[in-house]
Amino acid sequence: MKSWNSTEFWAEYSNFKVGPESGKYKISFSSSYSKSHSTIGNSMSVANGQLFSARDANNDECSNRNFNCAAHYNGWWFSCCSNIFPNGQFFNYPTALSAPDWKGIVWRYGFGPAYSLMEIEILIA
């Protein structure tokens, strides 16, 4: 991921897997976050073990089932809701530095909910 001052950050997780459609694309990865191989906080932890949610497939764990995280934040592996929104709305600089909370491309532990990243990519090896 890249911040608006062009600094690059990354978070590394091991044993990363996405399950089959029949299992609602359940995501799993090693619970041991690799601090020695990461340069930013562990915002993915709440996604571990979650089912994929989309606007038309509400699989999140919100106690109020009338709220669909994906309908508000786009598709992702939500608990209720999340600490990371790679599919959030893109905001240009300087609006991205103080975007509406949880609306941008968010990585909470490192930037907070109001900072929208310049770019983010997820690589699975």
What do you see in this structure?
Pfam families: Fibrinogen_C. The chain has a two-stranded antiparallel ribbon with strand order 1-2. A hairpin with an 8-residue loop joins strand 1 (17-18) and strand 2. The relative contact order is 0.19. It is globular and about 40 Å long. The chain has 2 helices and 6 strands, in the order E-E-E-H-E-E-E-H. The chain starts with 16 loop residues before the first strand and ends in a 14-residue tail after the last helix. The protein is mostly loops and 125 residues long. The longest helix is centred in the middle third of the chain and has 5 residues, at 69-73.
What is the count of helical runs? Answer: 2
How many runs of DSSP E, i.e. beta strands? 6
Distance between the termini: 17 Å
What's the arrangement of strands in the largest beta sheet? 1-2
N-to-C order of helices and strands: EEEHEEEH
What value does the average pLDDT take? 91
